[in-house]
Amino acid sequence: MPFFLASYKVRDLLSLCTTHTATTPLSKTVLKQMNKTTIATHNGNFHADDVFSVAAMKYIFPTFELVRTRDLELINKADVVIDVGGIYDPETNRFDHHQRGGAGERENGIPYSSFGIIWKKYGAQICGGNQDIANAVDGGLVSTIDAVDCGHVQGVQEGISLSQTIGMFNPTWEEDNHVDACFDEAVVFASRVLARFVAAASGGISAKAIVAKAIENAEDPRVIVLEQYTPWKKTVVNLSEQALYVVYPAQTGEWRIQTVPTEHGSFENRKPLPASWAGLSDAALQEVTGIDDAMFCHNGLFIAGSRSFASTMKMAAMALEA
Q: Of 97, 140, 156, 268, which is least packed with CB atoms within 10 Å of its CB?
């Protein structure tokens, strides 16, 4: 039986329960299946909030049966109800936001959709018990899905959104695909996206601690040295007003020196690399710097590199004096 069970299949299953006795092998199988957690959401066209809600439930209930329906009798019997039913009650796993008054909103004014209220209850559990990671995923993914679904467009970036991408999984009027099968495909996609957001948030939080320690241990507060490449810009900008350059190893084994931006996301640097290095590489850069393994300097004067740590630190010293 597929992981996601469409509503019409559930109804077939219910009919089997009424036509077979409990002593037949088929009935034992059916009854065992019926003991699984049942999750209900609406049928028909789907959106990012219900798709991601079901993707999140995969972390909480590894095995469940999905009912896509608007039949209130089936909805009321479900263990978990998502985006339908007119009730928000996390204690009983009722996660709708369409009722009068909705399901509340965040401190920043973004209202909750079904995905958001599910994440509010289960996000930390999905993130291995780490509320900081859950909060980061809410800020980067969940709240945006909620905002689009609730029509709260303020602060939502223009262009093709993840919500629109999920919507594209719905069959067009020219396609014969069953909408339930398309929903299943969308959930598989959303599950992967959610997993990557959780991984990225986890990595970001771990990186912050590593970079903060490097700032603390820096021999010269103007040059931050990382023993391995770690996302650093936001942490360095926020925690060190003195830092001008960050030195770190590249994945290919060489070393890099990069300028610290004036603020996170800015292309303006606190102190560019020496103007005489701009656009040079290999022999030309080696001649200008006197460093025999210097490799390149970007024309924008924000990043340069050499083959060794010692040489890259020489480049940092030269940049400080320039």
A: 268
